[in-house]
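Q: Convert this sequence to structure tokens.
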Amino acid sequence: MKRLLLFAMMCASISFVSAQKKFDKVSKVTSSEIRWWGYKVVKTEASSHSGTVKLKSGKFNFDKTVLVDGEFVIDMRSLMAGDVSEEDQIKLTNDLKSTNFFEVKKFPIAKFHLTKIIPLANSEYNSTVYGDVTIKGVRKTITFPANVYVTQFTVVVESAKFSLNRRDFKVFYQSSLKDYFIKNEMDIQFRVSTEKLDNENRVPVKKKK
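A:
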């Protein structure tokens, strides 16, 4: 009888955990823009580079009308340098995708799990965003300022430009001499927005005429 009771309690516990992971509403990201900046140690316009990377998928999870968290997958294969000539663009882009930096063949995606949003007052940005970013299999907790707008199940997040330390994610040249001339800080800025979704069919809800 005790074993049967224990088994029943375990099943109930598993069911409870599963229920916790089932959200009432899911809003899918339908519009996104992600930009990056990298710098040489001697930071000048000529020694700085910028570009883009694309969001593969993204969503915000709701418990009733309360935003719980957000899950985002970045397509590292879409990484692109955008501030140089066509010939240099191809060379720099290939270098960034190689084992010297992001190793996109081995690590084709990066992830960001938004865990918390804290409102700010009297600031250029209305919120501080907390989350975990995973690059090259390394996960780090980060925070950054952002303007966050939530209306019903529609979400817009516009981040400030914030820095990540590339060495935290093992993003560095195999040659220590070349790596010495590159700043460890790389800057990121992004904007993501959603449309309200029908939770059963996972399609955008048609706007009322």
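Residues 25-194 form a domain with the Lipocalin fold (CATH 2.40.128.110).
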